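note to self: dont lose this again. the chain is below, predicted strucutre after it. 500 aa total, dont forget to put it in the shared folder this time
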Amino acid sequence: MTIHLTDLQAMLPALALIVGAFIVVAAGTVVRPEKRQGVSEFLCYFSLAFALATVFLRLAHRGDDRPVALEGFNGSVRLDDLALFMTLTVIAATGLTVVLSADTMKGLESAQGEYYGLLLLAAAGMMVLVEAMELITFFIALEVLSLALYALSGLLRRDARSNEAAIKYFVMGAFASGFVLYGMALLYGATGTISIPQIGAQIAAGAAGPKSLVTLGFVLFAIGLAFKVGVVPFHQWVPDVYEGAPTSVTAFMSVAVKAAGFGVLLRLLLTAGRPEAETWGTLLWALSILTLVVGNLLAIGQSNVKRMLAYSSIAHTGYILAGVTSLRGAGASVAQMQEAGAAAIYYLFVYTFMTLGAFAFLIYAGRGDKDAEEIGDFAGLAKRKPWAAMAMTVFMVSLAGIPPTAGFFGKFLLFKAMVSAEEYTLVIVGVLSSAVSLYYYLRVVVYMYMKPEGEGAEAPRLGFNSALVVFACALFTLALGLLPAKYLSLSYQSIHSLLR
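---
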C-alpha cells in the first residue's frame, strides 16, 4: 500500500507522540542516570508541543461551512472536529501529567525513560482510538493504550499495592477486550464490512444480517467499552487500581481514558449505531442510572480520599453516560442530538482539569515520601497551605456541581440535554446523586478548614511541579465555568461533524 502525505497528516498528532515515545526510551539508554529524567521530560514536552501545534493548525483552517476533516489510510482514520477536540483533551491531560511526574517520579529508577515512553504511547493510542473509522484500527489503538496503562499501573515494582493494581487491571482489561472483539466479529458477520460508516449504512438500508446478530454485537461492544471507562457493574477494578497505581498515573487514567472512551462511543453511536438507537439506548439508560447510584453511594463511606475520588470518577462516568443516553430520545432532531453530544464532550473537557487537579493536590499535600490519601491527612491543611487548600476547595465544589465552576456549567448542560430529550428519570436521578455527592466532597473541605492538624507528623513536602499543576487546574476550572463559550462552540462543532 502506498502511503500518501494526507495519510500522515491525518495521524500527525499521534505520530508525534509515537516518535517521541521511542526517542524517550532510546535516550534513557545513552544519557547519564542523573540526567535521564530531565531529558525525558524535555522530549515529552517537545512531542506534546508539536502535537498541540498540529491541532491548532487544523483548527485555524476550519470554517462554519468547511469542516476540518482529513482521511488517511483508505478511510481507516479520520481527523475531524471530534478527533481534534478529544486530541486536545488528551494532550492537556498528558502534559499536566508530565509536569506532575517531575515530583512523583523523582529519584525512581522506573522514571528513567520507560515511564515517559509508556505515557506518550498511551496518549497516542487514545488519539488513534477517537480517529478510528474501521474496527481493526479501533482494536489496535485500544490495545496500545491498554497495554501501556497496564505497565504504568505496576510501575512501582517493589510496591505490593502497585503490583496488585497491575494484575487486576490486566485481567479485567483482557476480559473487556474479549467482549469488544466478540462484538466486532458479530457486527462484521452481520454486515460483511469492518468500516464503521458502512456498518451504519448496511443496518439503515436493512441489508445487515439477522437483527439479533446486530443487536448482540452492539451489546457486547458496549459492555467492552463499559469496562474500559468504569461503568457499573463493570467497575470492580477501578478503586483498587486507582489506589494502587502511582498517583500521577491514576490522575492520567481517570481523565484521559474517559475522554477517549466516550469520544469513540459517540462516534460509534452516531455513525454506525443510529439505526439501532432503541437497542443501545435502553442499555445505556439502565447502566447510567446504576452507575450514578452505586458510584455516589459507595463514595460516601470512603475514608481514603484516593478511593473516594475513584468512586467519584465512577459517578461522573454515570453523568456523562446519561448525557450520551439522551441521544436516543432525540429522534430525528439533529439539533437535540447535537445538544446532547456537545454537553457530553464539554463535560469531558472540564472534568479533565477538576479531577486531575484533585489528584495533583494529593501529591502536593503529602508529607515525606507519602501522598495525602487518608482523610485525616487533610486536617489543618488550610493553615499550612492556604492557597492550595483554596484550590482543592475549587475542585471539590466543581465536582459537586456548585456555581460558578466549570463542573456546575457542565452538569447544567447535561441536565438541559436530558430535559430536551424528555429523559426525566435520568434528570431526577442525576440531581439527587449530585445532592448526595455534596457530603463526601465537602467533607474534605471541612477537614482542611475546621479540623486541627495532628502533631508529630513528617515535614511537609515541597513540590513545585505539583503546586503548578494544582493552580493551573484550579484556574482552568474557574475559567471554563465563567467563560465557556469558545470550548462549548468546539463541542457543538465536534458533534455537528458527525451528523453531516
